[in-house]
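Subject: sequence -> structure tokens, single chain

Hey, anyone have a minute? Need the predicted structure for the following. Not urgent.
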Amino acid sequence: MENKIYTAPVETTVVNEGLRQYLMKVFNYMAGGLCITALVSWLMVSNPSILRIFYNITPQGASLSGFGWLAFLAPLVIVFAFGWVINRGTASQVKGVFWLYSALMGVSLCPILLLYTGESITRVFLITAATFGAMSLYGYTTKRDLSGMGSFLFMGLIGIIIASLVNAFFLKSTGMSYAISFISVLVFTGLTAYDIQNIKAMYVDYEDSETASKKAVAGALSLYLDFINIFIHLLQLIGDRK
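Reply:
Had a minute. Here:
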């Protein structure tokens, strides 16, 4: 009886410690990706000669050059191809693709960042970090199964993509743009909690380091996308334009 009483807590402690280390690895990858994105954006915004490679800068704003279109579309291609890299590539290749994606996102964010003051970008970033942190904590600690909410949020995400395309090419409505941004903040905030719970569920303490590293990068990409989208849409809602 004594062995049974003490064995279970010890095993639970080992599993919890392994899960904690795994989640730390996921968050470290995500934070590294955000740092690369921020660094690339800063280098481009502060260096006009680099910026002109990707954008045609005019008093009315910035438009993509031919090379800029390639840099803009490349992250979309990488996201769709990421599953193939996870299944077929090595852990080093998966990490390399993630770092490349993070750098290209830094290029894609430049037109948005050029529109807003540095103070408002910093403020929105801090609000995003607080929101992301709170929802991550909820997703980690809640006993509620969020899989049903995740399915609903993915449907909302598809609706956001369709509405964004319709508004960009046909309606071009400022009111619609604000509505899309507001809904997007809600959707990606909810997806943060769902993704954290999903990452926890995917954790297996006896996996080899190669598989665990690839899954950690995949989880980091999901959280990275949640963070970036919350930041972009909050900036469009409450950011101060220059």
